[in-house]
């Protein structure tokens, strides 16, 4: 097991996903400063009122977008490998912990689910009018590459992060994308009806 710096946050970072972070607490400025200097990752784990989750993601700083005069930093991090947090350790101003890597089982996604997931991706892009480049169908861990392009709730992203079967994970992602697409379509239908006759008929 390795000891790494741990950054508990109210978000989940998926492998291959990039997210912006604003760093202002002195202890985490120290952590991020070391990671930038040493070109080393830190461990990002989801934390809420229920505590810190066991499965997290190694986060690499890929860009420093702004350095403020008071020391604050705006950065972009990218998710790499997953890890399991065995225990928190002490001795630094920031959290540290003993971790080991988490690998997928040998359970690849079904070809039909790959096709379905990519079709749902394009459907969501069309429905929302956003410009998002899809990952290639042969991308390793396609489920993470697709899920990281949508703003799912942290609990749902953690569910995907915890799953070690790409087959199960991609199938679950398809379910989530179908629900999201149906919600967007219902909202568009309600908005259209409201514009035509001034009445809204909520979906059952």
Automatic annotation (TrEMBL):
InterPro entries membership: Lon_prtase_N, Lon_prtase_N_sf, PUA-like_sf
Ranges in coiled-coil conformation: none
Name used for this protein in its record: Lon N-terminal domain-containing protein
PANTHER family: ATP-DEPENDENT PROTEASE LA (LON) DOMAIN PROTEIN
Organism: Gaiella occulta
Lon N-terminal domain location: 1-181
Taxonomic classification: Bacteria, Bacillati, Actinomycetota, Thermoleophilia, Gaiellales
Extent of the signal sequence: none
């Amino acid at each position: 097991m390795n000891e790494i710096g741990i950054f508990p946050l109210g978000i989940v970072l998926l492998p291959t996903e990039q997210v912006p972070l604003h760093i202002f607490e002195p202890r985490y400025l120290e952590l991020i400063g070391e990671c930038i200097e040493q070109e080393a990752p830190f461990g990002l784990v989801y934390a809420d009122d229920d505590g810190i989750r066991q499965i997290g993601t190694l986060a690499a700083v890929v860009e420093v977008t702004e350095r403020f005069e008071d020391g604050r930093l705006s950065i972009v991090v990218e998710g790499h490998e997953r890890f399991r947090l065995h225990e928190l350790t002490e001795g630094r101003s920031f959290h540290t912990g003993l971790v080991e890597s988490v690998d997928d089982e040998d359970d690849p996604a079904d070809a039909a689910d790959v096709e379905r997931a990519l079709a749902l991706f394009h459907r969501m892009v069309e429905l929302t009018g956003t410009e998002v480049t899809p990952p290639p169908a042969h991308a390793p861990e396609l489920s993470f590459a697709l899920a990281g392009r949508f703003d799912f709730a942290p609990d749902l992203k953690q569910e995907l992060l915890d799953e070690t079967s790409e087959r199960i994970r991609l199938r679950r992602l398809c379910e989530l994308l179908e629900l999201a697409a149906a919600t967007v379509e219902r909202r568009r239908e309600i908005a259209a009806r409201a514009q035509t006759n001034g009445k809204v008929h909520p979906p059952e």
